[in-house]
Amino acid sequence: MAEADLYPRHAAPHLVEALQDSPVVLIHGPRQCGKTTLARMTGEPRGYVYISFDDDVVREAAATDPAGFVADLPEHVILDEVQRAPAIFAALKMAVDRRRTAGRFLLTGSSQVLLVPKLTDSLAGRMEILRLHPLSQSELAREQPRFLDALFSIAAADSPTAPAARTTGAFETTRIARLAHELAERIAAGGYPPALTRPPGRRRTNWHRDYVDALVQRDIRDLAHISALDALPRLLALAAAQTARLFNLADLASPFGLSRPTIRDYVTLLERVFLLERLPPWHGNRSSRLVKTPKLHFGDTGLACALLGTDAAALAADRTLLGFVLETFVYQELRRQATVQDIPHTFFHYRDRDRMEVDVVIERGTRALAGVEVKAGATVRASDFRGLRKLRNAVGDRFACGAVLYDGEMCVRFGEGLYAVPVRLLWEHSPPAP
Prior knowledge:
Blueprint: H1 2-6, H2 12-19, E1 24-28, H3 35-43, E2 49-52, H4 56-64, H5 66-71, E3 77-80, H6 89-98, E4 105-109, H7 117-123, E5 127-131, H8 137-140, H9 147-152, E6 174-175, H10 181-189, H11 193-196, H12 202-223, H13 231-241, E7 245-246, H14 249-253, H15 260-272, E8 276-279, E9 295-298, H16 301-308, H17 312-317, H18 319-338, E10 345-351, E11 357-364, E12 368-374, H19 386-395, E13 399-406, E14 410-413, E15 418-422
Parallel strand pairs: 1-4, 1-5, 2-3, 3-4, 12-13, 13-15
Antiparallel strand pairs: 6-14, 7-9, 8-9, 10-11, 11-12, 14-15
């Protein structure tokens, strides 16, 4: 429970709201990201009883008699790691249909539970879903996330009849202290609460590596019977080296004596346990010149650095690697902040055959669109906005804002709707003066 005291979660108010009107609430996300802590901190003061399917006896009882198991559950219950007991999903549906009480079942899942057919078929329309990520930088800073609101504040987000007028106050011109070496330290630390309780270096790296081994041996073994389980840690390390690059199945498969379809299946398994993520290309127009290949992103940069054997000092010294891992760091921070927004946000990348690109493209609601480009350096030039300008021209009035995030000191405007923004403003509101 100490983890929740140290790092209050922005998802907590959303969980409380969901329990007030949904019979079943599911918190899903990777193991050790804080799902159980959030569920217990929220539920137990309200009388919820905690039951974990990591317990072999409990799991066996649920598999043997699902209906009887659910019938004997307390009035309000937390069912932890529910993906390990898929047999109970139909029984949960029957219990909800007999008595539709708000907040009756609070579930957590450490794999993509929504891909389990029995769950989607059984609890459709009866369940609200909350995605929980590892800790965001805004949570670590104890700041409410406001970057996305700032990014979209210079256009009316969801009205197709909104005027095209834009203000210039989304990011005020100001000078702040740059992060410098602290940036690499934040990237290498990642966001898993148990890892952050350990000192940087060997102890934290050991946690990350043990985490991967445990996940492969337990959750992935439960999801699929695969013949080359020992290949998965090596595949993960190779994927860590390719984070923020276009997904290339041939490059991932080449070191292994396995077929490309097999490696593709393994990548899908790693996505299901939230270790990898493919960012789709933006396809808002029908130009044949757009690259249609997704980007590969690692789920957490601390985990990626551990698998690469890279600490903060080595990362800061390798500017090429820093650039790629920083892009993943920014993307994951944006994703983590978006999960607690009231308006849905959808993420893409943009790249055309002229190699014009935007690292992250964000659609807010049904209309407004913004772009974020990421630079590891401390300076920004007009040429760094080429991809954002091309995106702006492609989408017209839908374009809300474009930002180049960089490790510099000045927040300044580079033309209509375009800004250079110090990366620390992604999570901090009033950083210390230089």
